[in-house]
């Protein structure tokens, strides 16, 4: 299969790539009813690409059976209305098993979380992703790049070996580096997704991105999709108006090396009565005196 055969999936990546939260019940288990309702809200709001088991979904805090359950629930709820991009990772056998499960469940794509290992060589990075891509040649593969030291040559080599590697979630906070990396690896070969959400979407679109990931979209789909519309139209002043509106919220998520990244999103959803605020360690819920700040920010948006 050639990269041209993945055109529909490439289009799905050139969009708001939603990273849904994973709601928990009072006893700490998965709250499937709330999860279905949140996914339905995203779909009804116009979201067309869902990423179960992403970082906003607390991937690293879920057990393997929970990750499989989240995948199955998301595919079922999407029901063909959205492309499903399942997060996989950990060691190679675990990632391959998750990839095969995602394929069997009906997902179309995989987002491969960055290898969690203290010693990652450039060639080893390529080998890791190739093992996963080769196991499921019919699925679109999207590496999640967070390492500023990764070479564009490593990604280009992966793309040459694996036609199903179709996009990149680029999450290095350096616009100039992203612009160079994308061009050195293949600006047209891959779909470039701004992996640091709305705050980086504007400058990253200016130099080559055509989609962006979002956790904020859980709270306000119309806000994220409105920014996308402005970016697609090349209306950067309009996109920056949205940027200014959401900046305080996103800065709260990014503070202290993103310690409250998921916590702030779940607190906003809790303020709207959409799910419980609980997160799993090593994240932690906000102290009570800070919760009102989140609710006040969200109240000012058109939701």
UniProtKB/TrEMBL annotation:
InterPro entries reported in the protein's UniProt record: Aldolase_TIM, DapA-like
Family: Belongs to the DapA family.
Any Pfam family hit: DHDPS
Record-linked SMART domains: DHDPS (SM01130)
Family matches, as PANTHER family: 5-DEHYDRO-4-DEOXYGLUCARATE DEHYDRATASE 2-RELATED, DIHYDRODIPICOLINATE SYNTHASE
Record protein name field: Dihydrodipicolinate synthase family protein
Origin superkingdom: Bacteria
Annotated organism of origin: Streptomyces enissocaesilis
Keywords annotated in UniProt: Lyase
């Amino acid at each position: 299969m050639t990269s041209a055969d993945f055109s529909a999936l490439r289009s799905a990546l050139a969009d708001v790539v939603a990273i849904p939260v994973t709601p928990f019940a009072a006893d700490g288990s998965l709250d499937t009813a709330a999860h279905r309702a949140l996914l339905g809200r995203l779909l009804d709001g116009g979201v067309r690409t869902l990423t179960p088991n992403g970082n906003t979904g607390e991937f690293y805090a879920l057990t393997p059976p929970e990750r499989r359950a989240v995948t199955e629930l998301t595919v079922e709820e999407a029901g063909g209305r959205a492309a499903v991009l399942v997060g996989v990772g950990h060691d190679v056998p675990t990632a391959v098993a998750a990839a095969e499960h995602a394929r069997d469940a009906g997902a179309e794509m995989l987002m491969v979380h960055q290898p969690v290992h203290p010693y990652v060589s450039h060639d080893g990075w390529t080998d890791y992703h190739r093992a996963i891509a080769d196991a499921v040649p019919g699925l679109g593969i999207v590496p999640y790049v967070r390492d500023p030291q990764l070479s564009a040559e490593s990604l280009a080599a992966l793309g040459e070996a694996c036609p199903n590697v179709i996009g990149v979630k680029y999450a290095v906070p350096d616009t100039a580096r992203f612009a160079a990396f994308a061009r050195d690896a293949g600006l047209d070969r891959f779909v470039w997704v701004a992996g640091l959400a709305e705050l980086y979407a504007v400058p990253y679109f200016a130099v080559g991105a055509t989609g962006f990931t979002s956790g904020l979209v859980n709270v306000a789909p119309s806000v994220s999709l409105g920014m996308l519309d402005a970016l697609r139209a090349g209306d950067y002043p309009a996109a920056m108006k949205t940027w200014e509106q959401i900046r305080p919220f996103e800065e709260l998520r990014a503070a202290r090396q993103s310690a409250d990244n998921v916590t702030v999103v779940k607190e906003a959803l809790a303020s709207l009565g959409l799910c419980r605020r609980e997160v799993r360690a090593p994240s932690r819920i906000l102290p009570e005196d800070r919760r009102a700040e989140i609710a006040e920010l969200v109240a000012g948006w058109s939701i």
